[in-house]
Amino acid sequence: MLAHVEAERLGLADVLDTLDEGEWATPSLCAAWTVHELVAHLTLSNRTPFAATMLAILRARGDFDRVEADAARQRARRHGPAELVAQLRETAGLDRRFPLAGRLDPLVDILVHGQDIVRPLGRSRAMPVERVVPALEQVWRSPFLGLSKRFAGIRFVATDAGWSRGEGTHELRGPAGELLLVSTGRPAGLAAVHGPALAEVTARLTAS
Length: 208
Prior knowledge:
Number of strands: 3
Mean pLDDT: 89
Structural class: mainly alpha
Low-confidence stretches: none
Largest sheet: 3 strands, mixed
Number of helices: 11
Distance between the termini: 31 Å
């Protein structure tokens, strides 16, 4: 899927080129991260040194999310928007990822974080179904996310692709891209989905 990852990174870089200073400072859909900090995080995806990161995780008592957040903020302080966009383009086609990451994790990251960036800005960015479906498969089989437990009794059904996952009679239906956002914990995806399970999924996302 590297060609798709590269295309998504380059496409997002084109969008970032059009942002003004205020938009770069806008909070993203990722809690406590601005657009600037989230783009810094994206540039770290194929630059993260394994040994130093593992040491930082040990110092943070296993809190990987905290380590990632701190690294992104530090990088955002060191590099301005233009530098980060250049870095995103520079390594767009690089097939390198953190050793613990799955083969499709870079695709998940760029698809989801692209929406984390553009939606608070009132912009739209298409999520091609042929890219979203493999990303959905990745998040649903990830042992770290535990979606089969988190959404127990609920079946997710894409209305624009031949894809469905989950067990149960209660369905959540909608475009694959919106289901990807919901699956990764983004309430922003709920506005474009429907079905008998909508209220229950909304409650579970709110609770988490």
